User: What shape does this take?
Amino acid sequence: MKKILIANRGEIACRIIRTAHQMGLDVVAVYSEIDRAAPHVRMADEAVCIGPAPSSESYLRADKIIDAALQTGADAIHPGYGFLSEQASFAQAVQQAGLTFIGPSPQAIELMGSKLAAKEAVAKYDIPMVPGSPHALTNPEEALAVAEEIGYPVLIKASAGGGGKGMRIVHTPEALPQQMARAISEAQSAFGDGSVFIEKFITQPRHIEIQILADRHGHTLYLFERECSIQRRHQKVIEEAPSAILTPQVRQAMGQAAVRVAQACQYEGAGTVEFLVDDQLNFYFLEMNTRLQVEHPVTEMITGIDLVAEQIRIAQGYPLRWKQEDLHIDGHSIELRVYAEDPFNDFLPATGQLTRYERPQGPGIRVDDGYEQGMEVPIYYDPMLAKLIVHAPTRLAAIRHMLEAIQHYHIEGVPTTLPFGRFVLRHEAFRSGQFDTNFVAQHFTPEALRQQDEQFGKIAAHVALHTFLGQQNELHLPRNTRSNWWLKRKA
Ligand code: MV4
Assistant: This one.
């Protein structure tokens, strides 16, 4: 493998290019017409235009991307996240073109793409799962019977969904038949697959996921957990590693369960196994994401392992370089996703020019982005501008470090979620570690954000005054001994 094509754009394309270059690989970028001057294009050694701005005409065009790889003599394709990264048919087409897909097999992608098939496949491997229907439900009678057995509230999920898409909470048997009919028709039109199933609804769960790496030689490692409970409408906002609540015992049990999930589908590459965790620290397998995740940097920070480098090495056929006992958690890392959205206006996505864009920098601060000052934020793609990542010895130090970094991140021209991130990091529920997936819905309003800003402004003023007065006493500023040179000069 000498040359790889990155089938993506933005921060993740830049992040992958950086590692590929460090490994001595040449890089081909692909870009849409609107991205011709984008950072990922300039960072690459070669770049191929694959179509107009809409992703359906560019970054989602498997045929054009594979053509670009063949034209430029690339040996492999890295899909990044989003776009084509979890389409089994793309992985398959890449292989059929004689190229290496940097990721798992089409079969593993396909299997995990179906939540029901995934649950069925891992059932034999002693993986804890939320009580529910083991197969697709079509008639309301069966659904009522299952719900009766597991108890309300229940959650209807689309098998082809994932990431919270197509979920419905049902509190009573009366509501179940109609909700089910809606869920089926919604799933049919959204995914082309009307299969739905039922699970007991865990009301205040935490969303904790395990990073795994698996090589082609049958070895699988877990790289500990990421806590992803701070999300807004299924869009993650803050992720951290490790989780504030896991004990070493539960961490190991979850890690080993995640490894068994990976083994159940003969997984290869980097992957993430999602769990729900309740307040008793019971954990339940939800789904497996067969791609590099947005939040992978927090795992890199606490393990010191470059996940993209490992993806590439695995695709090159190398065995993993570590045994499980070699891996340890070093300190604490937090990631804040910075979106071009207005937290004061229902997170309305914004476009426009970045008239000022200055990153924070220093030890323990990492910014993964694909923007520069002066660039336009286009309407066509994800509104995420950047990921601000910090690493410090402890969780509290990491929170402080993040607040400091936010203070030194200057973005003008579009509103961003930086103030929202600061709100969360200052909030007692977050700082104490006592939160669940309902944090944002429970605690955030624009009014609460304004109030917190005002309160912290007052505290800052008090602290400044106190410090000033204290220092005045300590320093014993000489009051009557000052030089009177100017009087002398006058005289
Ligand atoms: C659940 C759940 C509670 N009970 N399943 C959301 C993402 C997808 N991977 C599965 N998700 C959930 N599945 C059961 N049985 C809670 C979530 C969930 C969630 C649900 C509603 C609102 C916000 C949420 C945030 C994270 C997880």
